[in-house]
Amino acid sequence: MSDRDAAFEAYFAARSDAMRGTAYLLCGDWHRAEDLVQLTFTKIYLAWRRIQRHESMDSYTRQTLVRTFLSERRRGWFRHESVGSPATDRPAPPIGHADDRVVLLEALAKVPPRQRAVLVLRYWEDASVEQTAALLECSTGTVKSQASRGLATLRGLLEEEKIR
Length: 164
Prior knowledge:
By secondary structure, this protein is mostly helical. It has helices at 3-27, 30-47, 57-75, 98-110, 113-124, 129-136, 140-163. Helix 4 (98-110) crosses helix 7. The longest helix has 25 residues, at 3-27.
């Protein structure tokens, strides 16, 4: 095994679960999240020799993941069809009430993809406005407006759920 492969393998082992969690928040489906992570790490592996700064790999990987998600949504390559209740392959972390988490994840899945990407990066990945703008290749004003609209959409969806 080459040094390149060993370094990539170590990075993948250390970061794939965290990226899978982010991918799930973006797409709302564990199987699709696995596919997104696989595509992302394939792209990372192909570019591994050209990457100069391996210490900033998380940011680059996150950017690749979000762009892959948005690109596939834009092209219509992936169409989400719900055929029943979502599979729960992975246990949820013990944060808050389990029902609240399910309701929040279902509402997040209904937020438009670009707004969802901003919300996940800003509030799940804890990226700054500037970092999010760099990852999405947009202005900081766009990040702020997308975050505001995304939060408003999310609040509206959660209010609807509360009324039911």
